Amino acid sequence: MNLSSANHGRRHFLKQSVAVSAGLLLPSWVVADNVPKTAKSNTATTGDTHKVGTAIKFGKDVQETLKKINDFEATFTKKEVVGKKLVQSEMFVKFREQPFSVYIKYLNPHGGREVIYVAGKNKDKLLAHGEGITSIVGTIKLKPDSKDALEDNRHPITMFGMSKLVATLVQQWQEDEKHDDCVVKFFPNAKLDKVDCKVVETSYPKQVAHAKFHLTRLYIAKDSGLPARVEQFGFPAAGAQPPVIEEYTYSNVKTNVGFGDIDFDTENQAYGF
Known about the structure:
CATH class: Mainly Beta
Helix content: 10-25%
Order of helices and strands: HEHEEEEEEHEEEEE
Shape: globular
Strand order of the largest sheet: 1-8-9-10-11-12-2-3-4-5-6-7
Distance between the termini: 19 Å
CATH topology: outer membrane lipoprotein receptor (LolB), chain A
CATH superfamily: Lipoprotein localisation LolA/LolB/LppX
Radius of gyration: 19 Å
CATH architecture: Clam
Oligomer: single chain
Structural class: alpha+beta
């Protein structure tokens, strides 16, 4: 393969989303009667109205639960608006809090693509390789916040994980608390597919300058107390439904697995690097 074709392959691979988004949020919309529905099987009872402080406390309680989690593996599904396009991906992930470490294997699309990032290693760059013909390019290194790494991602891989996801929401709600037009509802008996959840929802009835999103939802699995999904909607056009901006879903979660350095190393024989 000549240098020109190799460079073309590398650029094509980068354009197809080499880095991984941070792990924050996205939905499918509410249908009627104050009942959240993000899929045909996702329902909740009508929620009671609360103050923004309730959402903040809800988030901080989740943060306390997450302090007990050293690492986890999961199926991670994301939907994100990047530029003018909606990017959707499903992947298998391994995550470790200390040192901050992420392993990602794409399932769909780009099945077989892998990404590894460990804070402070590899000159603080993520390592990635493509699938199929793009694997010829080999392993490449990218700065997490580089233009190429964020080609199909709203957030850098350095923002990945449940803890940072919830921390971002708590910070958002703390800003919302400064205003009196944010509506908060709590749904104690929601369902996300077959998972029983508690849901806190914040929204702005009218578009205002200080509102980052029209509507935000945090789903917490009742059995584990861990985030199952975060959804963020934008303000709708006249007569239209609110557009999804971010949706992040964790399923098949296993916590405190006991990952070691080899789980975040390109030398792992189970990986395709």
